[in-house]
Amino acid sequence: MSTTAQESEQPEIEVSEAASNKALALLEEESLDTDTAGLRLFVQQGGCAGLSYGMRFDTSPDEDDIVYEHHGLRVFVDPASIQYIAGSVVEYETGLQGAGFDVENPNIVSECGCGESFRT
Question: Were both Cys, which of 14, 74, 98, 120 would link to 38 (CB 3.0–4.6 Å)?
Fold first, then answer.
């Protein structure tokens, strides 16, 4: 059974209102039920600094996921990833270089020059 954010001992993952609204709109475009589906945030091996973020939509949380909810968006984080991203904030940013989701992670001790990977 998944763990709710209140049951987790890790600092909460937060999602800005802009990021939640964009993710919810994308979920609806994919015809996914926003009552059960959500944004999966995870960490994977890769990049020149060692770790990189991954995001995708899932129809429901896995059994051992921690589930957060912000502004109507459900966010699923697996137990292996939470140790690297606890306390992070997911933002949605637009600019001259394009638009996209960005993770502001307080646990980073270094990142690669392009900002695509990090080390904690």
Answer: 74
* Domain residue limits at 15: 3-119
Q: Which of 52, 48, 65 is nearest to 7 (CA)?
A: 65
Which residue, chain included where needed, has tokens 């999602």? 15
Q: Output the domain CATH number for residue 104.
A: 2.60.300.12
Which positions ≥6 away from 99 have C-beta within 8 Å? 92, 93
pLDDT at 102 over 90: no
pTM: 0.84
Question: What Cα–Cα distance (Å) separates residue 8 from each residue in 47, 79, 92, 100?
Answer: 29, 10, 25, 28
Q: In a 3-state reduction of DSSP, which class is residue 24?
A: helix
Q: Is residue 92 within 8 Å of 18, Cβ to Cβ?
A: yes
- 76 in Cβ contact with 58 (< 8 Å): yes
Amino acid identity, position 101: F
The full DSSP string for 58-94 is ESS--TT-EEEEETTEEEEE-HHHHHHHTT-EEEEEE
